[in-house]
UniProtKB/TrEMBL annotation:
It holds the Pfam family Peptidase_S9. GO terms for molecular function: serine-type endopeptidase activity. This is S9 family peptidase. The keyword Flavoprotein does not apply. InterPro entries: AB_hydrolase_fold (IPR029058), Peptidase_S9_cat (IPR001375). Keywords: Hydrolase. GO terms for biological process: proteolysis. Residues 424-631 form the Peptidase S9 prolyl oligopeptidase catalytic domain. Signal peptide: none annotated.
Length: 631
């Protein structure tokens, strides 16, 4: 099976949209090279219905279009980052300048300036031998230790050949948005000692070189700011009603005050789970009098737009839109259509971009090789009532399904919990189907896509969601008689891993369980996770109270566990730290329980999605071996 997994993952490709200019789009195709244990990127441009590869003789990080035929890109070079310019017609390339920082993002203005967001590090407090900090937030999953580092904005003038600092060292910039029409730069300043991520929006006039603070109260988290209809409109939330998972709303910023512009009950991002999507972005695109954005509603992620003070649906022809751009005459999107793998699609638009028309066209055929050698799983979608709400359930049939035979079943629980499981493709589910299992899953209370109230389970972790999952399992077993109720497994990761740990302390209905990147002890999670203090107090609806936190913790009830358990955890997971696995494992061993622990070296919380290719193969192989041997 390991060789089959390796062969499959080599055939799966990913897409990343880099930039667009008028009718030209630059994008990347990404694939895994298992032998080299690396991801390989190839650059392409799309124009007039055709794609063409861009030959790159050096590595590249971030790519932007300077014009329809010229790109500017950054590349790391030992201690510096180089900026290069390349003509797509002549293939000529030259170095523009070097900058002594790690570059996080950049954008090109219409008057030949480059806005650069860098990560400035203080080597006195964070170097090869030590990390020294006075910050509350000093490490993040995937980034490692961030003590002594801060985001800063620089502007490089291509005509004058000069580099200028825009933000001071004492400020930490974590977002910027360039409005080319107004030649103004919006950016957000955050505080590493703020428990909640309240930040401050600024605007910088690129013509006058003047900075203005737009709102200084530090009682909202902003995620986007721009001009629309001569107003400054922001996406923000204050967490007051539903806590950390409260969906943002549109606000107008005027004279230092924040006024509600549009009520909203849904998020501004794609929260549909996928293990074959390399990079997830929160795309906002301002065109004239409209802001276009992604939003997950129900079990679909579609494109919506804000226009005339209202949010309306713009495009919903895919199950899950990952990213999009609107060129002069086309909407171009990456995403998943039903159980097909990710592809690039396009649809014609009106001159002003306000309407799409004609048929949806598939530009790429990335999944052709994978689908040629694999039969994609069959899936059914059905409605069921859980805790007075009607939600969707999904069931995947085992490969070679025969209605006259019985099969093992797997309850698969997504992470978050504010995420959405839909009918898009996931390789985990493909593998489980190939192994001969029914797979069933749903979106219990706490999930996204059904509004703030449904997503709110503050103080109810392991309670209402547990009831949902058990009732859902009852519904599945009642309606699919071919599932052997004595051969059930439960699998989950992150929040889903917590759910697995919690479930097996309360019921013995599952023959075996797999907990990945899980939580077992909220007492220790509170102080060791990169989100621990704020997430724990918010989601469990309690401050640091030993007894209350322990009540929510599966580790308290290890003596009640009779289910065979596999714990899978990454060594450098800073969101659900490794000690969550080792504490639980130790207590289970001391209580003479049937448990196995696997630790993946040098991997983090995102192992199943963006981990190194060899580790991803190993994880899937370990999971399949455990299931095959014991189920």
């Amino acid at each position: 099976m390991k060789n089959k997994i390796k062969s499959d993952l080599k055939k799966i490709k990913y897409l990343k949209l880099d930039d667009f200019f008028k009718s030209t789009l630059v994008f990347e195709k990404i694939k895994m090279n298992v032998k080299k244990n690396a991801y390989e990127n190839k650059l392409f441009y799309y124009e007039n219905g055709k794609t063409k590869k861009i030959s790159m003789d050096t590595d590249f990080d971030i790519v932007r279009l300077f014009s329809s035929r010229v790109i500017i890109y950054s590349a790391k070079k030992r201690q510096v980052t180089g900026f290069y310019i390349k003509n797509l017609d002549t293939k000529d390339k030259k170095l523009l300048f070097d900058i002594d920082y790690e570059v996080q993002d950049f954008a090109v203005t219409d008057d030949k300036k480059i806005v650069i967001l860098v990560n400035e590090k203080d080597l006195m407090v964070n170097n090869e031998t030590k990390v020294e900090t006075t910050d509350l937030n000093y490490r993040f999953n995937g980034s490692g230790y961030v003590a002594g580092s801060a985001g800063r904005i620089f502007i490089y003038d291509l005509i004058l050949g000069q580099l200028k600092k825009v933000t001071p060292k004492c400020q930490n910039v974590d977002f910027f948005n360039l409005n080319k029409k107004e030649n103004k730069l919006f950016y957000l300043i955050s505080d590493k000692n703020n428990l909640y991520n309240f930040n401050t929006p600024y605007v910088y006039d690129l013509d006058k070189c003047v900075t203005k603070c737009l709102y200084d109260k530090k009682d909202f988290e902003f995620t986007f700011v721009d001009y629309i209809d001569n107003k400054v409109v922001a996406v923000a939330t204050n967490f007051k009603r539903y806590g950390l998972n409260e969906n943002p709303k549109f606000y107008e910023i005027e004279n230092g005050a924040l006024n509600l512009y549009l009520e909203n009950d849904y998020g501004f991002e794609n929260t549909i789970t996928s293990d074959v999507q390399y990079d997830q972005v929160d795309r906002f695109l301002t065109i004239k009098d409209s802001i276009y954005f992604l939003s997950t509603r129900g079990d679909k992620c579609s494109i919506y737009r804000l226009i005339n003070g209202k949010a309306e649906l713009y495009f919903d022809e895919l199950t899950s839109v990952s990213d999009f751009v609107i060129t002069d005459d086309e909407l171009v999107v990456t995403g998943f259509k039903d159980t097909n793998l990710m592809e690039l699609y396009s649809k014609k638009t009106s001159i002003d971009g306000k309407k799409t028309h004609g048929k949806l066209k598939k530009i790429t055929k990335l999944s052709k090789k994978f689908e040629k050698s694999n039969k994609i799983y069959e899936i059914d979608k059905f409605k069921c009532e859980l805790n007075c709400d009607i939600i969707y359930g999904y069931i995947i049939y085992p490969r070679g399904y025969d209605k006259n035979l019985n099969y093992p079943g797997v309850l698969y629980i997504h992470g978050g919990p504010k995420m959405v499981a839909s009918h898009n493709f996931n390789y985990d589910l493909q593998l489980l189907s190939e192994l001969g299992y029914f797979v069933f899953y749903t979106n219990p209370h706490g999930s996204d896509g059904l509004g703030d109230e449904f997503a709110d389970i503050m103080g109810n972790w392991g309670k209402i969601d547990y009831d949902d999952l058990m009732n859902f399992t009852d519904v599945v077993l009642k309606n699919f008689k071919q599932i052997d109720k004595d051969r059930l497994a439960v699998i989950g990761g992150s929040y889903g891993g917590f759910a697995v740990n919690s479930i097996i302390t309360k019921t013995d209905r599952f023959k075996l369980a797999i907990a990945q990147r899980s939580i077992s002890n909220f007492v220790s999670f509170y102080g060791t996770s990169d989100i621990g203090a704020v997430f724990t107090s918010d989601q469990l609806n309690t401050e640091y109270d030993f007894e209350k936190l322990l009540e929510f913790s599966p580790i308290k009830n290890v003596d009640k566990i009779n289910t065979k358990l596999l714990i899978m955890h990454s060594e450098k997971d800073f969101t659900c730290p490794l000690e969550q696995a080792t504490e639980f494992y130790t207590q289970l061993k001391l209580n003479d329980k049937d448990v196995k622990l696997i630790i993946y070296k040098n991997e983090n919380h995102n192992l199943s999605r963006t981990g190194s290719p060899k580790s991803r193969v190993q994880r899937l192989s370990d999971m399949s071996k455990f299931l095959t041997k014991n189920l």
